[in-house]
Amino acid sequence: MKTMNIQPRLTILIPSYNISKYVDEILPTYAKEELVGKIKVFLIDDGSTDDTAEKIAPWVQKYPNLFFYFHKENGGHGSVINYGLTLVDTPYFKVIDGDDWTDSKELSTLLQALETLDADVFVTDYTEAYPDHQRRIVSYHEANDGRIYAPNAIYDESILPHFTLGIHTLTFKTALWKENHLQVREHVYYEDTEYCAYPLRYAKRFVYVPCNVYFYRLGSQGQSVSLNSFIRHYADALKVVHDLYEGYDELVTEKANPAVLDAYAAIAAKFTFRETIFYPENKKMARKTCLDLWKEMKKRPLIYQKVLHQSKTSRALVFARFRCLGLFRKLIRKRAH
Question: What is the pLDDT of residue 12?
Answer without folding.
Answer: 98
